[in-house]
Design brief:
Number of strands: 11
Number of helices: 1
Radius of gyration: 13 Å
Helix content: under 10%
Structural class: mainly beta
Distance between the termini: 40 Å
Strand content: over 45%
Shape: globular
């Protein structure tokens, strides 16, 4: 069992903030402390795109260009949780946000994930 469960998405107005959470369970929890973790998002009709990632020990983070200066990724290894703090939200941030592990190609323009949660909807109104 590999399970990642996102929460925290909702409708907010532009300029607002959200904090997304991802809880790992099953095998995802068992290897959580040695796994890089990340967030991706997908808007309707668009490809799933990378948002941010964090190394297994939390010492290295990666941010996509749209996320830079606005988002921050964090993890709590004691509780098998991943977070995405989203500030200064824009309508173009509207998407389903997915928690992912089994990350590859971090540091490249198109990082990849292997295992995914079900996603949480973030909607930003103008």
């Amino acid at each position: 069992q590999i399970q990642l469960t996102e929460s925290g998405g909702r409708l907010v107005q532009a300029g607002g903030s959200l904090r997304l959470s991802c809880k790992a369970s099953g095998q995802a929890a068992q290897v959580f402390t040695t796994s890089n973790m990340g967030w991706f998002r997908q808007a309707p009709g668009k490809e799933r795109e990378f948002v941010s990632a964090i190394s297994w020990n939390g010492y290295t983070t990666w941010l996509s260009d749209p996320a830079k200066g606005r988002f921050a990724i964090e993890r709590d290894n004691d509780n098998y949780q991943l977070f995405l703090q989203m500030n200064s939200l824009r309508p173009e941030d509207t998407a389903v946000y997915y928690c992912a592990t089994g990350l590859q190609e971090l540091g490249t323009p198109r990082p990849r994930g292997t295992y995914w949660g079900q996603g949480t909807q973030v909607s930003v109104s103008s």
